[in-house]
Every structure is written in structure tokens, then in C-alpha cells.
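User: Just a sanity check before I run the rest of the batch. Below are the C-alpha cells for the first item. I only need the designed sequence back.
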């Protein structure tokens, strides 16, 4: 009998100290997470951490607030990603923010407006499903051209 094996979250790919970009991905879709893990674990100088819920993410940001890029799904099982934006403001989140969601465009627009009003640095809004082109856009946020 064949069983599917999904990654156990949180997943941490800790790179050596230096100029590593600290990238946190928050999404509860196991297939999406597996694709992201496969792609981003190959990226040099990247501290890549995956969470599948807001609670773990919030704890991580409280313990170690220095995150360069946060990719957030807007619909998660424990708390709404939109609600989490206020928490990011309270935590004084200074990193770049990416929305990746299957929510309707109107929800993503509303979340984008809220992020701007809270002073969060929303740099990319993407609809699911993930594609090679969207991964390239995310890579450009992680490693902006000099």
C-alpha cells in the first residue's frame, strides 16, 4: 500500500551565519509547501522556515523578529491571515511581505489596503496556484537586483 508523505511543519533550512536572507513562509496547503520547500531549500544563503499556522509564526516572530521576507497565505486554519496583519504591526515587522492566496481578488485587495494602512511593506501579491513564473517573482523579492 502506497501512502503519501507530507512534510512536517515547521520546516527549517538553517544556512550558515553571514548574509543569509531570513524567509518565512506561512501556508497550510501541504502540496504548496512541498513545492516551496523543494524550490527554496536549493537557494543559497537563505534561512527558509515554513509554518502551517499563524500561532507558530507569531511565536517565531516574537522570539526572533528579524525576518527579511514573510510570505503569507490569507486563509489559515487557526487564524485569518488578514487578522494577523495587525499583529505584524504590533510586532513592528519591518520585512518585505508577500501575499500568496487562493482568496478572491477582492479579499486580496482588501488585505493589501489594510497592509498599506498599517505601514507594512507589501511588495508582491500573487494568486494560487503556484507556477514557475510566480516562483521567479518570489525569488526576485528574496534577492532584489542590486
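Assistant: Here's the designed sequence for the first item:
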Amino acid at each position: 500500500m502506497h501512502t503519501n508523505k507530507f512534510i512536517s511543519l515547521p520546516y527549517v533550512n538553517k544556512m550558515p551565519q553571514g548574509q543569509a536572507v531570513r524567509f518565512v513562509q506561512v501556508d497550510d496547503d501541504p502540496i504548496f509547501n512541498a513545492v516551496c520547500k523543494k524550490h527554496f531549500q536549493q537557494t543559497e544563503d537563505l534561512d527558509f522556515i515554513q509554518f502551517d499556522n499563524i500561532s507558530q509564526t507569531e511565536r517565531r516572530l516574537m522570539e526572533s523578529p528579524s525576518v527579511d521576507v514573510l510570505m503569507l497565505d490569507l486563509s489559515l486554519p487557526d487564524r485569518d491571515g488578514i487578522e494577523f496583519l495587525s499583529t505584524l504591526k504590533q510586532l513592528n515587522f519591518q520585512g518585505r511581505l508577500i501575499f500568496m492566496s487562493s482568496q478572491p481578488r477582492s479579499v486580496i485587495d482588501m488585505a493589501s489596503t489594510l497592509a498599506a494602512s498599517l505601514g507594512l511593506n507589501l511588495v508582491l501579491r500573487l494568486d494560487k496556484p503556484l507556477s514557475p513564473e510566480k516562483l521567479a517573482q518570489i525569488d526576485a523579492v528574496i534577492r532584489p537586483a542590486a
